[in-house]
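I had to read the description of the data format several times before I understood it. For illustration, here is how one protein appears when written out as sequence plus C-alpha cells:
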Amino acid sequence: MYSIAFDKNLIKDVKLVEINLLNPHEKVIEKKKSSLAKFIKSYENYYIISSIVCCHKSMLIIDGHHRFFALKELGFKKVPVTLIDYSHKSIRTGKLNPIDKDYIVNVGLSKELMEPKSTEHAIYCYKSKQWQPIILLSSMFKIETADIL
C-alpha cells in the first residue's frame, strides 16, 4: 500500500457531484479518453474508479480530466469527486514552470481550455519530503456500468 502524509484539512469532502458542475481547465488526449470510456463500458455491472480531484470553491478539475470527459461521454450524471482546498501551499501546479493557480481557475471558469497536460499538479508529502502526484488524494468509487447505453 502506498500512502502520503499531508494536512488532513486539505480534503474538504468526498462525494458524488453533478457532472455539469465541474469545470475542466485542460483539453484531453482524445485517444486516451476514448480508450478509457470503452474500457469502463466493457464492465458488465460496475467499475472501480479514482475520484476526480476538484477545488472545493470553484469546482475546477485539478486531476481527472480524462475520467471526467470519459464519464460524461458515457452519460453519467453524477461523478465521484474529492474536493480539496486548492489554495493550500502544499499543492503545486508544475515542477519546472508552475502556473499561477488563480490563472488556472480563471481558465476553467472561462471554458477556454489549455492544452492537455499543461499542468502537473502535485501534493507535498511531509513523510517523504517529496512532491507526489495529486491523484494520491483520490478515493476509490464503485460506479454502476450496467445502465450505460
Summary: Residues 8-144 form a domain with the Conserved hypothetical protein from pyrococcus furiosus pfu- 392566-001, ParB domain fold (CATH 3.90.1530.10). Residues 37 and 83 are 23 Å apart (CA to CA).
